[in-house]
Design goal:
about 15% strand; globular; about 45% helix; seven-stranded antiparallel β-sheet; alpha+beta; about 525 residues
Amino acid sequence: DIEYLDPTFDISSTSSFYELDITEICRQFCLIEQKYINKIRTKEFIHKAWTKDDRYSKHIDAYVDVSNHIVSWIATEILKIQDVEERAEAINFWMLVAEELYEMHNFQSVEKVLAALMSSPISSLKKTWTLVSKRHIDMREKFNNILFSNNKLYHSLIDTISTDTPCIPLMNPTFRSLFSLEENRPDYIQDEPELIDWGKMTIASNIIWEIKKFKEPYPYLPVKEIQHMILKSENWDNEDVRYEIALILDANPDISDVGIKIMPSKMFPKRSVRPQLTERELSLITTGGTMKSYNRDDFINRHGEPFKCLYWLRSGEVQIESHGKPLQNLIKGKMFGLSSILWSSSPDAGRYRSYSAVEPSVAIQIELYNVKQIAETEPGIFMKLNYILARRLALRLRANLNDKSLLSSSSGDMSRRFIEIKKKKSELDSYRLPVDQVELRKYHCALRGKLLSADGELLITSNYVCFNTSTLGIVKQKLIINLDEVIDIFIHHGHIRILYPPTKKYDFQSFEDVNEAFSFIKSIWEMSSANITD
């Protein structure tokens, strides 16, 4: 019988993740690791099953997915912190977590923490790392050397641990050894193909045994709130987005006066704050700008020309094209020219799109040096602008509408892509949305009712959430939600809840991945009132 240890603290007494007890966090990591690893069947390690169809290695695949989630979640939690000193303390915190996990012989979770801290986005926080404790930097190098750089040190460490002691060894050495064995040694004797190579089978068995031999469970009780936080919290799973945000944070180590709360750091979902520029801030940004008038079909910026200015459309309508194909129409109040800010050092910034007036239009042209003056005189506004632009970049990447995908495609691929956009546009026609709306993503889900739930499709555009239910292709119900009017979006009992004035609420459920859907929809909502585009 196992004598279970009680949790080390009362979770109801804390509201911030960083107020949680480190020992209890580590205990929950141990339970999560054992839960997923114990489900992996021995046959999933044989014949490189994890490199084939997931039918042969579904538990390994599930473990890899949750591992990737945890790594990106740790990095996200650090990047959500707006103060450079607090970010350094967060890194110190995670090194303390790694240290205790190491003492608990949970080497897999140590690997996850180090993978997050040594990822490109977190490593690029140079000003943050200067404030990290030297002891923790030395500890990171020590763990990296023992667990990853020197196989002899790691195997010597594992050999000292008794099999009746709870332990979670590293998985990667096992996969590497098994892969090498399969690649270099056939199953049958070379000169006698009817004879099985039992020597190979013995070696494979010994390799797998290095993981399977540790069967002793950790004597800890699960704390579902902490496990839910680890496994279900929002994470920015696109490393390119995390890297762009890290660069902005590192260039501006103190952004406490921006007026945007980047770090929620709460155990339970926090209602979001939508970053948006006020009229005063827009006026300051456009101070010194030049009023430009354009007739119908006049080019604001031609395809092939670098984009060197930011524009604020005051009247009329502007069309964005890429390689002669329409992408989006912009209306009064929109800002565009994002690439001139984010990639001002690149000679290719904005070269692959053109902007032309659909009707007589007026826009304020803002030179980059004016924006740089704002950076010096109004750092809060400048950081808010940068934050909004970074979120817009995240939207472009998630929607897979970025220029790189177009550049890397053949002309046939490009034609198929714009046919697909046209098809999506025709699907939106039935909702009678503004002409500049393009479908960004579609989800199969259900709208929860008082008695029954209605299955259907949820369509996401830059400013609307549209839902329809259908039976045998016949539309039964339509719902159009204007994101500019939405009060809040959050997860409620596993559903995505949208609050709409005056007292309406819509619950969407049965997503294939509710956290991914919530993260995407929330990011679109947060940007819907920013009035900035590329």
